[in-house]
Amino acid sequence: MGPAVGQAKKPDGGPHAVDRLAALLAEDLAAVDQLIHQHMTSPVGVIPNLAAHLIDAGGKRIRPLITLAAARLLGGGGDGPRKLAAAVEFIHSATLLHDDVVDESSLRRGKKSANTIWGNSSSVLVGDFLFARSFNLMVETGDIQVLDILARAASVIAEGEVMQLAAANDAETTRERYMQIIVAKTAALFAAAAKAGAVAAGRPGAEATALETFGCELGLAFQLVDDALDYGGMAATMGKNIGDDFRDGKVTLPVVFARDAGDDGERAFWRRVVGGERTDDDFHRALALLKRHNAIALTLDAARQHAQRARDALSALPANAYREALSDLTDFVVERGY
Amino acid sequence: MGPAVGQAKKPDGGPHAVDRLAALLAEDLAAVDQLIHQHMTSPVGVIPNLAAHLIDAGGKRIRPLITLAAARLLGGGGDGPRKLAAAVEFIHSATLLHDDVVDESSLRRGKKSANTIWGNSSSVLVGDFLFARSFNLMVETGDIQVLDILARAASVIAEGEVMQLAAANDAETTRERYMQIIVAKTAALFAAAAKAGAVAAGRPGAEATALETFGCELGLAFQLVDDALDYGGMAATMGKNIGDDFRDGKVTLPVVFARDAGDDGERAFWRRVVGGERTDDDFHRALALLKRHNAIALTLDAARQHAQRARDALSALPANAYREALSDLTDFVVERGY
Question: If we measure between CA atoms, which residue out of B231, B229, B16, B6 comes closest to residue B110?
Answer without folding.
Answer: B6
